[in-house]
Amino acid sequence: MADEELEALRQRRLGEIRAEHGDPSADPLQQEAKQREAEIRNTILAQVLDQAARARLSNLALVKPDKAKAVENYLIQMARFGQLAGKVSEQGLIEILEKVSQQTEKKTTVKFNRRKVLDSDEEDDY
Questions:
Q1: Is residue 90 classed exposed, middle or buried when 0-12, 13-18 and 19+ CB atoms within 10 A define those classes?
Q2: Which Pfam families does this one have (predicted)?
Q3: Contacts of 114 (CB under 8 A, 6+ apart)
Q4: Cβ atoms of 116 and 122 closer than 8 Å
């Protein structure tokens, strides 16, 4: 009986580890739900974007997947609220990309902390 409990604990822990690391075999229902969501997203984007804009967005997804995901979410939200009048062209997508870039732009600052160090070359050590 202890062996059965131990094996059940091992299986449960293995499932938790797989779920934490995003293993696709962890939960088939979750995998199916993600696949359906991806299909819905692709369908909406196919309806909203023309072919050149869609190609540009897929190229962006290869280089910067987080920015492409943000643009996709923005386009889907605009489509759901009816703010898009027709298909978005490549130039329209470029404008949206610039807008998203400005919103997510990180400003970096560099601060120099100069410390005064006693140096033998200074003139006040007569």
A1: middle
A2: dsDNA_bind
A3: none
A4: no
Written as six digits, the tokens of 106 are 């990180």
Distance CA 93, CA 56 (A): 8
Beta bridge partners of 49: 88
Q: What are the distances in angstroms from CA 115 to CA 79, 112, 118, 119?
A: 56, 9, 10, 12
Bridge partners, 88 (sequence order): 49
CB 56 within 8 A of CB 95: no
Q: Can you list the domains of the chain with their CATH numbers?
A: 30-102 (1.10.8.140)
pTM of the complete model beyond 0.85: no
